[in-house]
Amino acid sequence: MSELLKNSIRFVVFLFVQVYVLNNVPPLHQFVVPYLYFLYILWLPFNMNRFAILVVGFIFGLSLDAYTKTPGLHAAACVLIAYLRPFMVNLLMAKDTSEFNYVSPSAKSMGWAPYATYVFVLTLFHNFYLLFLEWLQFGNFLYFIGKVSATTAVSFLMIMIVEMLFPRKQRFRTNTA
């Protein structure tokens, strides 16, 4: 299956799961909304250039905003993590190009500790920025910090569970360039 088709299917699946499943979890919805959708951006291939990642992040966030009727909140958070993603990958991946031979980020390609750091930091940035934009309407700072902490913890836990339950087949990059 081509990368474009695989990423298109992921696009639809992550939107569907976020909109129709995770946004409708009643007991958690008062304080914590588990966000899993931005994992799509974290799983994009290494070889995508920064501009393409930003455009994909914007379109993905705007698509979610269209379903949830939030005016650009998810688009802004997705563009932020799409912007930060290449910096995190460069920071956490091996500098030697002979060790950098997988197509996309995963626990297998990066190792569990760097991958968990990658996911946690970008999850924290995503949730902080998204909830900060939402919080500007309300005002209680301790509530904001608690909501960011709880949402980040639940989202990080869900991402790690998804990574363990649905391991992705990783392809090696070839030297055909």
What would you say about this model in short?
The chain is an all-alpha fold and 177 residues long. The protein has helices at residues 3-20, 26-29, 39-42, 50-68, 73-92, 107-110, 112-135, 141-165. The protein has one domain.
DSSP summary: helix tally? 8
Poorly predicted regions are none
Helix content: 55-70%
Helix and strand sequence: HHHHHHHH
Percent of residues in β-strands: under 5%
The average pLDDT value, as a whole number, equals 85
- Give the total of domains: 1
Radius of gyration, whole Å = 16 Å
Instruction: Give the terminus-to-terminus CA distance.
Output: 20 Å
Label the structural class: mainly alpha
Count of individual beta strands: 0
| Biggest sheet details | none
Description:
- The chain has 177 residues and is mainly α.
- The protein has one domain (3-20, 32-88, 99-165).
- The chain contains eight helices and no strands.
- Helix 1 (3-20) packs parallel to helix 4 and helix 4 packs antiparallel against helix 5 (73-92).
- The longest helix has 25 residues, at 141-165.
